[in-house]
Amino acid sequence: MTAIDHYLHAIIMRAVQEARDDASATVEAHHLLLAIAADQEATTQQVLTSAGLDHRAVREALDREFAHSLRTVGVSATAHRLPRPSPAREQPKLGATAKLAMERGFSLAGRKRDLRPAHLLLGILQAPLGTVPRALAMAGVDQAAVVEQLRQLLQITGERGAA
Questions:
Q1: Can you tell me the distance from the alpha carbon of 73 to that of 17, in angstroms, rounded to the nearest whole number?
Q2: Where are the alpha helices (DSSP H) in 22-81?
Q3: CA 126 vs CA 2, 72, 154: distances in Å
Q4: What is the pLDDT of residue 82?
Q5: Residue 157: which pLDDT band, with cuts at 50, 70 and 90?
Q6: CB 45 within 8 Å of CB 121
Q7: pLDDT recorded at residue 80
Q8: What percent of the chain has pLDDT over 90?
Q9: How far apart are CA 60 and CA 52, in angstroms?
Q10: Rounded Cα distance, 145 and 151, in Å
Q11: What is the C-alpha separation between 48 and 42, in angstroms, rounded?
Q12: Cα separation of 25 and 55, whole Å?
């Protein structure tokens, strides 16, 4: 297995645990983002830290987005004691948003040997709609600026690799 294979396996396994913690039957893009934020990979950590996003900040942003979504349909999480979700009986499988994020990120690398951890983060952050963009917007994160920073870092990495 290559270094990127090990990284992807570790991130997916951490995302599975995040999904289990949420009692989710599927691993979605926001679980991948939580897993990346908890990881210590240098480039992704640099970008997330510069945006004020560590694991805790991502979790808080996602919790705010969830509460906001509930309020949109007339449910107040603070006024009602919502029950904890029942744990999933089976291991969560990759869901649609996780698969799309991975496809978006991997397609940017072109070849597998060019794939870097930042490609996965870029695939997650390029989603125009969904939980992640709503959560980041509510947290005041300039998603376009973070995407641009990732693109620049990947271009620099690519140029170094070619030299």
A1: 29
A2: 29-38, 42-50, 55-72
A3: 25, 24, 14
A4: 67
A5: low
A6: no
A7: 67
A8: 72
A9: 12
A10: 10
A11: 10
A12: 21
Alpha helices in 2-142 (DSSP H): 3-21, 29-38, 42-50, 55-72, 96-109, 117-125, 131-138
pLDDT at residue 161 above 50? no
Q: Which helix (H) or strand (E) holds 94?
A: strand 93-94
Amino acid at 93: K
Amino acid at the residue 73: V
* Both structure tokens of 144: 């376009």
pLDDT digits (tens, 9 = 90+) for 57-101: 999 999 999 888 887 877 776 666 766 767 667 899 999 999 999
Q: Report pLDDT digits (tens) over 109-122.
A: 888 889 999 999 99
- For residue 1, CA distances in Å to 9, 14, 98, 122 come to 10, 18, 22, 23
Q: Which residue has the higher pLDDT, 90 or 33?
A: 33
Whole-number Å distance between alpha carbons of 71 and 162: 51
Using the 8-state DSSP alphabet, how is residue 80 labeled?
A: S
Cα gap 116→4, rounded to integer Å: 7
Q: What whole-number distance in Å separates Cα of residue 32 and Cα of residue 18?
A: 8
31 vs 11: CA distance, rounded Å: 9
